[in-house]
Amino acid sequence: MRRFWVMGLGMALLCVLTPSVATAQQGVPQTDGVRFGAFSIHPSMYTAVRYVDNIYFVPNDYAPQTPESVPQGKESDYILNVQPGTIIQFRVPNFRAQADYRFYNDTYLGTDDEDDLHSQLDASNHNFGGAMEYQAPIGVFANVRDQYTVQETFEDSDQFIDQIRGDQERNEGSATLGYRYGPEDNLYIAGRYTNVLDIYENPDISDRWAWYGDGDFRLKFLPQTAILVQGGYGEVYYNKWLETDVKCANSFMTFGQAGLAGQLTNHIRVLAKAGYQANEYECGESFDGPIGQLEFAGNWQNVTRFSVGYRRQILDAATTNFFESDEVYLTAYRLWFDRLASDLFASYQFNEFSNPNDRHEDFIQVKFDLTMELIAWLYFGGGYQYDNLYFDDGDLNNTTERNTFLVKLLAQF
Fold first, then answer.
1. Which residues contact 375 (CB under 8 A, 6 or more apart)?
2. How far is 107 from 228, CA to CA, in rounded Å?
3. How far apart are CA 309 and CA 51, in angstroms?
4. Measured at the alpha carbon of residue 399, what is the angle toward residues 393 and 402, in degrees to the nearest 5?
5. pTM assigned to the model
6. Digit-coded pLDDT (tens) for 47-76
7. CA distance 407 to 371
8. Which contiguous run of DSSP H or E holds residue 72?
9. Which of 106, 272, 291, 392 has its CA 20 to 30 A from that of 373?
10. What's the pLDDT score for residue 162?
């Protein structure tokens, strides 16, 4: 689903970073746009061509079962991706509201398509979003966000997400109420409610509804050190679950963790937290375990940034119940000559899935991206991504690899 309870405070801290070439992406306005008093309109257009050497993401040792099987082997193709979008913002002191729309389309060009079947993978998504934020002078803040998507395919992600390909409607909304005090949020308290709904067009796939309530507490008790406390509760429900009793899929989650965040040097911060998560199913089974994170992050005036860390999470996925994920990750960013930005992301995940689809998966992902600012609102770049998935369910084990090369052009006002 999402890592609400693990990353909530981290995302709040990241949001205060000054936008740079690295954040030149749709959803992050780069200019004042077209203004009408407190209103502004920020149109955007993202266009890319990517080459994928394994479009069906089949294992390296894949063999078709019949001459009619799709695919017949490991197939590659060039894919044209276009994403026009618009953001409408309203800003006054202490208050901001935003509505946005983004269209996503993949068109397979059929360069390695002897059977003329790649066009079946053509897909379009419609993404609608809205948000309101209020910051009171006394430190109280509140925000409401909602994202509604009508999708035919899943878009790229920095994380491996166990999701189902196919026509789907998804709605994800959240509301946060909190209080912050001090020039560096010496005291930070926030409570959040999140609601997620997945509706699939395929009648054989179970629709899903989930809600989560979680909170963050941060108190700086030394000049460079703060204590963190996080906790929450959530429930996940399915209308059916393949051939398994739905009561053994419906679940209830409770978690808590605590830790420290501190400044090691003028440029390097450290985050360390640990806790426990308990997941109980309606049929009486449980899936519990420790969770935590250790991260070192550096920032040199937003010209050079990096983070390296380890995190352990228990997550729920679309085609199984909960799974344990141990991940080691690295991110690195560098701004060259004020206009050229390089981004690196590398991750290794060790995932153990629970019943009814128990299995083990290792996932390795490496992404590298270069983006050049041509003018204040126009960006050109390219990138490379490597994915490696090892699968083992006791009866079957295989490895799947994929290489992706990308050239892109973004206009974001």
1. none
2. 46
3. 31
4. 135
5. 0.87
6. 999 999 999 888 999 888 888 778 888 999
7. 10
8. none
9. 106
10. 44
**308 and 324 in contact (C-beta within 8 Å)?**
no
Q: Say if residues 71 and 57 touch (Cβ distance below 8 Å).
A: no
What does the alpha-carbon distance between residue 385 and residue 408 come to, in Å, rounded to a whole number? 14
Neighbour-count burial for 372-395, b at 16+ CB within 10 Å, e otherwise: bbeeebbbebbbebebbbbeeeee
**Does residue 382 sit in helix, strand or coil?**
strand
4-412 fold: Porin (2.40.160)
- Residue 70 sits at φ, ψ, to 5 deg, of -120, 120
Tokens read off for 260 = 């420290």
Residues contacting 193, CB < 8 A, separation 6+: 174, 175, 176, 211, 212, 213
Domains of the chain, by residue range, sit at 4-412
Q: How far is CA 290 from CA 33, 85, 255, 274, 309, in A?
A: 47, 41, 9, 7, 17
Residues of the chain with pLDDT under 50: 1-20, 22, 158-159, 162-163
For every residue of 232-244, DSSP letters joined together read: EEEEEEES--TTS
Burial pattern 97-107, b for ≥16 Cβ within 10 A else e, equals bbebebebebb
334 and 304 in contact (C-beta within 8 Å)? yes
